[in-house]
Amino acid sequence: MSAPVLLPGATLGVMGGGQLGRMFVHAAQVLGYRTVVLEPDATSPAGLVAHQHVATGYTDAAGLAELASVCDAVTTEFENVPADSLRTLAERLPVAPAAAAVEICQDRAAEKRHFQRAGVPCAPFATIEAEADLAGAAGLLPGILKTARLGYDGKGQVSVSTPAELAAAWQRLGRAACVLEKRLPLALELSVIVARGRDGTIVSLPLQQNLHRDGILAVTQVPAPEVTPALAAEAVGCAGRLAASMDYVGVLCVEFFVLADGSLVANEMAPRPHNSGHYSLDACDVSQFELQLRTLAGLPLVAPRLHSAAVMLNLLGDLWFPGDATLPRTPDWGGVLALPGVALHLYGKTEARRGRKMGHLTVTAPDAASARTTALEVCRLLG
Ligand code: ADP
Ligand code: MG
């Protein structure tokens, strides 16, 4: 792309109005950019803080035309923005990441084929698109059946052990295109966030170790306590290769499993900043959102430096419903903020619901043990 470098003062657009868009908007505003969000929801986290909100659907021709006319470049904050909308925008202005890369990340089967193309190991899998595919996939059991498209936070996934369970689960998922993955013995989970610039420069955030609960990210620790330098280098190398082989421009997150035998397996990619990278706002000198901004604007990329140990805790709507409470209660933020090194981020969502990501909190400290101690204290206070 021979697009001009966009300096502060330029206008940057985001497709999508969720918390990732909100944090991108904040990062862009810190550097003096104007921001525009396209998002149908009138009270979205990002729409509420952007300079301008185009309140239409992601495929609305008039909305896309308006976004293109007021922006100098556009990025996306979630992977399910229709790739054709990104293509339409790209006819008029720079768009990063590009539609083709986002399209790969939207489909688990395409994503796994990309892992294989780039020589990155992934779980043994089969695609299930018709009744006839079920029998051939039975050799992968016990496994996890996942819808190929639109799954997130463990939604659209069923654990299956027998051919009968597999057939029933596929029915339950509406006979949608799926992948069946072999269930792997996980020792731990980690993720790598890389940013790749227009000129092919790649930088990465320090690698994250992640703990999921019920399919949703719960805790991220950096430095990753159980990851050896050799394994970290391997994961960062894989993520860079995956980005380069898509000619990717933007921030890319790759989630990995470390298996019981110590081997590394890629799980999935996100063509945007990621929940596991939120700690970078408080523990690094350059955050994942500033990296997104720099790649979009064509600014130089410098490797982020971790200046504090960090523990990031996701704040789900469940915290608003302690015990069997039916009416929401505001958690004890006062108590939490009295602890050292706590950075509280709430996304401005108007309604708390169980399982909904309402915010996150990062504890930073000079060393990992202190960060963990404070994080445990936070958990005790929030119940
Ligand atoms: P989502 O898009 O919902 O994040 P993932 O594919 O990342 O879906 O799965 C969510 C979680 O489920 C993973 O972080 C991991 O804990 C578990 N999981 C997914 N696939 C496997 C697998 N093949 N073997 C074992 N655990 C898995
Ligand atoms: Mg995941």
TrEMBL record:
Its EC number is 6.3.4.18. It catalyses: 5-amino-1-(5-phospho-beta-D-ribosyl)imidazole + hydrogencarbonate + ATP = 5-carboxyamino-1-(5-phospho-D-ribosyl)imidazole + ADP + phosphate + 2 H(+). Homodimer. Pfam families: ATP-grasp (PF02222), PurK_C (PF17769), RS_preATP-grasp-like (PF22660). The keyword ATP-binding applies. Catalyzes the ATP-dependent conversion of 5-aminoimidazole ribonucleotide (AIR) and HCO(3)(-) to N5-carboxyaminoimidazole ribonucleotide (N5-CAIR). Signal peptide: none annotated. Pathway: Purine metabolism; IMP biosynthesis via de novo pathway; 5-amino-1-(5-phospho-D-ribosyl)imidazole-4-carboxylate from 5-amino-1-(5-phospho-D-ribosyl)imidazole (N5-CAIR route): step 1/2. Belongs to the PurK/PurT family. Residues 112-297 form the ATP-grasp domain. SUPFAM superfamilies: Glutathione synthetase ATP-binding domain-like (SSF56059), PreATP-grasp domain (SSF52440), Rudiment single hybrid motif (SSF51246). This is N5-carboxyaminoimidazole ribonucleotide synthase. Keywords: ATP-binding, Ligase, Nucleotide-binding, Purine biosynthesis. The keyword Flavoprotein does not apply. ATP binds at residues 108, 146, 151-157, 181-184, 189, 212, 267-268. It comes from the Bacteria.
